[in-house]
Specification:
Blueprint lengths: L5 E12 L6 E12 L3 E5 L6 H8 L7 E6 L2 E2 L5 H11 E5 L10 H11 L6 H10 L15 H13 L5 E5 L7 H18 L3 E4 L3 H4 L4 E6 L2 E7 L3 H10 L4
Parallel strand pairs: 3-8, 3-9, 6-7, 7-8
Antiparallel strand pairs: 1-2, 1-4, 4-5, 9-10
Amino acid sequence: MNNSPWVVRLDGVRKTYGKGAGAVHALRDLSLAFARGSFTAVMGPSGAGKSTFLHCAAGLDRPDAGSVVLGGTDLSTLDEVELTILRRERVGFVFQAYNLLSALSVADNVTVPLMLAGRRIDPARLHEVLGQVGLAEQMNRRPAELSGGQQQRVAIARALVARPEVVFADEPTGALDTRTARQVLGLLREVVDSLGQTVVMVTHDPVAASYAHRVVFLADGRHAEDMTHPTPERVAEQMTKLGEW
């Protein structure tokens, strides 16, 4: 059992793409930690390393140096098969594109991770998670019958169903209108505050970031700043200082 207060820790993580004069140093000795039951937004100018951070933290890519520890497991000790299992069973993902399977019902889309893992699907858990995202009445519908906001709620339910240690969200409201985006962000905050879930969200939107407990700013592959109790205005001001606005 991992008793650390941190769900994810990055220590001295470096990642470079390419070689020689054309090398891109995406992450430079990045050290960050994310507390259990917290909602963190990760922001920074274009090219700051946000996507690379997410890929390394979630075990989708391997850093060149440093360590990533997720739930007490050092990801560098795992082979590709073990990494795949860890991502499937211990990490949830929510992306800008909902990545739903059009031929499957809402219920089947939500339980895909469990089916892939060969785990028994508990009907009570399915109903619980669909209730949490407000889709209990839509479980037999297909994605095409849902609004964009409802489809993203299905994706969130899919990320939550296996009770992951952390959910990584990559621009989860990028394809949604303002009102729907706020509903989805409110839901993400609720699963943190009510259920103790840990959410790490990459975003470029100061309003989205304001729903988080904490905002981590990256710049040039490094940890530039931390902000607690964020407001859209404070976040936008910090982004201006970092050269985005």
